[in-house]
Please model this.
Amino acid sequence: MSKLLKLIKALRLIVKKPRLLNIIINEDDNFRDTVHKKYGLLNGLPQIGITNLAPNFNETINHYAFLDGGSSPLDIALLKQLAKKFKIKSYLEIGTWRGESVANVAEVVDECYTINLPDEEIFKLLPDSNYVASHRFFSDKLKNVTHINSHSQNFDYKSLKKVFEMVFIDGDHHYSSVKSDTKSVFEVINPEHSIVVWHDYSFSPESIRWEVLNGILDGVDKDYHKYLYHVSNTNCAVFIPQKLIARPMVKYELPDKKFIINISAKKI
Model:
């Protein structure tokens, strides 16, 4: 089939099913091209070694399910290490899910706030009672964790009357949501001192999720782009208002560190 015939066929399909146009527009390759042209980041964000960010990296994760949809143990360990290193006292996150990340961070900070959709909205997305009950599973009864039931893009963050020292953005990962959530949290942090972490900046530690990166870059003021990094071995991007030693990510690079893993489990 010629390119012209393929184009005609594609246009006919889009006329019949307009939603297909959204799939084309949101194709991750398109976001990659946008990032390349608009920001010149051919290899994504500069990468900082996790052991450079936190020398002698050593952490224990006490709340983890090893089930679908959660952050990796190393991503959560990164949050705890950052909280310790920078002596974080106030923590905010978007996207609670099972509460694994906030439950672990709550062990090392004074107060945590976590925002997630109300249960009735969650049930509309997936009408399964177990799915709804899984939310906040690990964090629901923690005294220093405040759960906010709201859509992150409709919530008035300033109503909390707080300036957060660290924020974890792990809500909806579509471009518009990432951009909106990013803009919102920068209104309740001190960008000269606070830290922001985005989950799912990458599909895997060596495969960038360009849609999320596009949302981050468009949501952060350009003056602060120099403080955006990818943390090696994780799926996380970070905003740390310091010039850190970083370099472009090299895919399939030989390991320069090893991780020692001790796994234990107990019934709850």
Observations:
- The longest strand covers residues 111-116.
- The CA atoms of residues 129 and 231 lie 36 Å apart.
